[in-house]
Each structure stands twice: as structure tokens, then as C-alpha cells.
């Protein structure tokens, strides 16, 4: 396989990964914001407390989406370790996300439904950059590149053999 072809394949896989991560992430953002706004309107929870609960619900939703959709082909050995790392990095993301909201709400005094949703969404955006990097680097590790190249070579050989067999008939 040429270097250009290998680079093209890697970029295509990265774009696909980002798209799948984005779909799960958008759904998770929806879950997060709906739960946040329901808690804010139906309970007396303070802004950041309601946000933390909503973030935890979204984290659980996202784990299922990432494990069974975005990274379903990732190495499945060591699920306990995977879940532990996911929880650890998600907790850091929770602190980032809610730290932005806390700073805006209590530090700057920007409180109210519109301001709360704006800063929550902003915090989600900042935390998402961290989460994407950490999940793909540490949690949902891909199979080694060498194994992928070997699998591609086997598939390529099988396709060539099938063409030869079809031409011979």
C-alpha cells in the first residue's frame, strides 16, 4: 500500500470517527440540555447542581453511544479498564463544563435561563474538545495500525484472488 493511499485511508477513517463522535455528542448535548432545563424548572436545585446531574445523565447516555456506535470496532478487551478510564476522563470533562458555567453564573453574575443555557453550551463545547482527544487516545483505543494494515492486505489479496477466479470461469 502506498503512503498516499495509507494517508487517504487514515484521513477517511478519522473523518468517519469524527462524524460518529459528533452524532453521539449532539444527541448527548440534547439529553444534557433537556435534563438541565427540566431540573431547573421542576426543582429548586441551584444552577450548577442541576447542571452536574444533567451532565452525569448525558455521560451515561454517551458511553452507550460511543461503545456501541462510534467505537464499536475498538479493542473490546478490558471493559472494566475502559469504563474506569471513561469515567475518569468524563469527570474531568464534567469539571471543565461546569467550571465554565460556575464562573459565568457565580463569578460574573450572569444568571438566568438564557445566560445559563449559553454558558452551559459553551462549557460543553470546551469539554468536548478534551473528551474527544482523551476518549480516542486512552479509552476506546483502536487496534494497532500494523493489525489494520495486515487485515487490509489480506482483504486486498482475497479480492485479487476472487477476480482471478471470476476471470478464469
Automatic annotation (TrEMBL):
It is found in: Membrane. The keyword Repressor does not apply. Residues 20-140 form the GtrA/DPMS transmembrane domain. Coiled coil: none annotated. Keywords: Membrane, Transmembrane, Transmembrane helix. It holds the Pfam family GtrA_DPMS_TM. InterPro entries: GtrA_CellWall_Glycosyl (IPR051401), GtrA_DPMS_TM (IPR007267). The chain crosses the membrane at residues 21-39, 51-71, 83-105, 117-134. The keyword Membrane applies. PANTHER family: PROPHAGE BACTOPRENOL-LINKED GLUCOSE TRANSLOCASE HOMOLOG. Belongs to the GtrA family. This is GtrA family protein. It comes from Streptantibioticus ferralitis.
Amino acid at each position: 500500500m502506498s503512503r498516499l493511499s495509507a494517508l487517504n485511508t487514515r484521513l477517511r477513517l478519522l473523518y468517519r470517527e469524527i462524524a460518529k463522535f459528533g452524532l453521539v455528542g449532539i444527541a448527548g448535548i440534547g439529553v444534557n440540555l433537556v435534563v438541565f432545563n427540566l431540573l431547573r424548572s421542576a426543582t429548586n436545585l441551584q444552577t450548577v447542581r442541576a447542571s452536574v446531574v444533567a451532565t452525569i445523565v448525558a455521560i451515561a447516555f454517551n458511553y452507550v453511544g460511543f461503545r456501541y456506535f462510534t467505537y464499536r470496532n475498538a479493542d473490546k478487551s478490558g471493559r472494566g479498564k475502559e469504563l474506569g478510564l471513561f469515567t475518569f476522563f468524563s469527570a474531568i470533562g464534567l469539571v471543565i463544563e461546569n467550571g465554565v458555567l460556575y464562573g459565568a453564573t457565580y463569578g460574573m453574575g450572569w444568571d438566568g435561563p438564557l445566560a445559563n443555557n449559553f454558558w452551559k453550551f459553551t462549557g460543553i463545547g470546551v469539554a468536548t474538545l478534551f473528551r474527544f482527544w482523551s476518549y480516542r487516545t486512552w479509552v476506546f483505543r483502536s487496534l494497532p495500525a500494523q493489525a489494520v494494515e495486515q487485515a487490509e492486505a489480506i482483504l486486498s489479496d482475497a479480492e485479487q484472488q476472487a477476480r482471478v477466479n471470476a476471470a478464469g470461469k
